[in-house]
Amino acid sequence: MNSYTPRPFGEVDTILLATDGTDYSEGAIQESIFFGQACNAKLIVLHVIKTDSEMAVSAHAQLAEKKNRVMPHLERIQSMAENEGIDCRIVVSESFQPDKTIVDEAVKHKADVVIMGLCGKSGLKKFFIGSMTTKVIGHGFPRVLIVPRDFLNTGEDILLAGDGSKFSELACAEAVSMSKSCTTLTKINIISVAEREHDLPAAQANIDAIRSTFEKEGVKTEYTTSAVVGRPSDVIVETAKANNSDMIIVGGYGLSGVSKMIMGSTTERIIAMTPCAVLIVGDTSLYEAASTNNG
After folding, report:
1. Domain segments of the chain: what residues?
2. Which residues have C-beta within 8 Å of that of residue 273, sequence separation ≥ 6?
3. What is residue 129's predicted lDDT score, i.e. its pLDDT?
4. Among 51, 182, 184, 192, which has the minimal tally of Cβ within 10 Å of its Cβ?
5. Nearest by Cα to 181 from 15, 2, 10, 4
């Protein structure tokens, strides 16, 4: 059994950057360097070469050619990391199921967070179910950070979205950790969105619970709270845009075991439309199952 307890995001020791070798990974690369330096964390740079099927044996020459093509990209990342004093290792793997391999490698290297680019296309209509991002999140790893291609993080402002679920509580714990560990963080915006007017008291109760947790944990970072009515994903994204947020922290809604996220869920819509990084916080018990199976 290869089991361990990942550290909170503000205290990460090992980061796994999953890169597809394209420009769509650039935001994720910069984010990995930023947090690697800020947290004095090790960086694993992973590229998975997709094979045709579980039983297929790809020609050695073809695999070697694909590896040779991506190595300059990986070595550039390694050089960037080492120039910032970050311990960095390159891993190239072959798999017919890259999403599962990314999670397996995260478990193998005891990563605290998986960082990925928001691959390719923007807008909800183009963010189709079956995307690599969706699949990786669906495996239940506790922390997956999704980063748009052109995004640059200043680490100053985060948006915490709460809905009163256990995932919301986990997301709140991540925000608390970051408030205590991230010296660049100056403000946390806390929001809970009711879809209908009569649900607004419940949204306010969510806010009150988060505020109580912040007070209990002695959070010193400035924070604001708001309970509003609207479509949760739209309100959260627009609030992030209005505040120039560096990160949205949200629970992994729609997860069930290692199943895919439900298309159209709040979290998936946020990822599709986000102007900034999105930290998806999942259930650790789901991760522990993946860890046990990998052992």
Report:
1. 9-149, 157-291
2. 122, 123, 124, 233, 234, 237
3. 40
4. 184
5. 10
According to DSSP, the β-strands at 187-194 and 157-161 are parallel
**Can you give the pLDDT at residue 187?**
96
Same fold? 9-149, 157-291: yes
> Which residues are CB-contacts of 194 (< 8 A; sequence separation ≥ 6)?
200, 202, 203, 227, 228, 229, 230
Q: What is the pLDDT of residues 153-188, one digit of tens each?
A: 888 999 999 988 888 898 999 999 999 988 889 999
The pLDDT score that the predictor gives to residue 60 is: 67
Q: 10 Å Cβ neighbour count for 5?
A: 12
Burial class (CB in 10 A: 0-12, 13-18, 19+), 83: exposed
- CATH 3.40.50.620 correct for 9-149: yes
Q: At CA 224, angle to CA 188 and CA 165, rounded to 5?
A: 75
Q: How confident is the model at residue 4 (pLDDT cuts 50, 70, 90)?
A: low
Distance of CA 256 to the CA centre of its chain: 17
Superfamily for the 157-291 domain: HUPs (3.40.50.620)
Residue 60 buriedness (CB in 10 A; 0-12 / 13-18 / 19+): exposed
Residue 35 and residue 112: Cα distance in Å, rounded? 12
Of residues 134 and 285, the one with the higher pLDDT is: 134
